[in-house]
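Worked example 2:
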Amino acid sequence: MRKYIAYYARNFDYPLFFTYIFLCLFGLVMIYSSSMMVAIVYEDASPDHFYKKQLVNLIVSSVPFFIGAFLPYKHFSNKKLMVTMLFGLIFLLMWLWFFGVGLEQTGSKSWIDLGVMNIQPSEVAKLFIILYFAGAFYRKSLNNPLENLQPNNIIYPIIVWIFIIFCVANETDIGAVIILTGIAFAVIAASGMSFKAYLKFFSVLALLGSALIGFILLVKGDTIFTDNRLGRLKAFMNPFEFEAGSGHQIINGYIAIGAGGLEGVGLGQSVQKLGYLPEPQTDFIMAIIAEELGILGVILVLGGLGFIVFRGLYIATKTTDPLARMLAAGISSWIAIQTFINLGGVSGLIPLTGVTLPFISYGGSSIIMLSLAMGILINVSMYVKLEGRKKHGSG
């Protein structure tokens, strides 16, 4: 047992671990600061309502994190486990069609209310796509080099991806659809498939995806193009023209960012969180960080997220194991894409989608699945370190 602990202690990725812990704790502080008004006025609860709930989420997240960190990552490519996860995910997605909540408040029917917490199946789907694609491609590589793979060799992952995209699109969760698509292409790009085959794969997915989107728009066009979403598109073009309506959130986000300046107005001193900025503890939490802690606070968060992303990509380039490479590339791409979509919406670079900021925003499903993903990434990093030591003969 002592030898086993010493092995992990020697190879553990401490920089990645402490960056993850820092972002989670920083997010916890900012959730407390940004959500006090929302908790009191809209939830009729104590000022630390969301803080306490997120603290519980973080405690719960420690379990999947350590499972991911200390269970060898190759177990996550197990076919039986993937089939079990697939059926579990299908069950959750089907449940949403009948018992999902959130449509009126957010424009997206994406949550399952369990009483003590809400589960968002699209968050589970993000990690599942990484694990399923990486595992499926890895098992194919055992009999056929990955560079020789063709789209017809991996028809089942394509079908699974299309089905999940269809279900998530049916929730009208556009942000999650974009992230799931980006994750799939990132894992495929890291698989080692030849560029020619990758273009074929891209063409197949683009064709099927376009047909699927066309069908969904035909069937659910009225649900997708709600006044709320059309308003977001209009506000994206010129938010000040719709200041009293769909541009309200973006404009108040700008005011928060501008008020912060270099050093911010001080922790807890935000004005925009006092009813001006809707749900400041979720997708617009970066605006509150900018207001209270200034550009320095923003740089601190972006530095932490950037470190995790580039560390993950570095790990992917260093390993010779295709499974490890795909897992590291998929997880780091997930965090990068989601961060870009969140910050792009807050800054006005892209239309708002309601996507949360990884590790920082309030949300149970998000932090639990991201914690499991971080555990897996650290486990892959330990393997890469051990691989490097063996290569150089240091044991």
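Residues 77-365 form one domain. Residues 183 and 334 are 6 Å apart (CA to CA).
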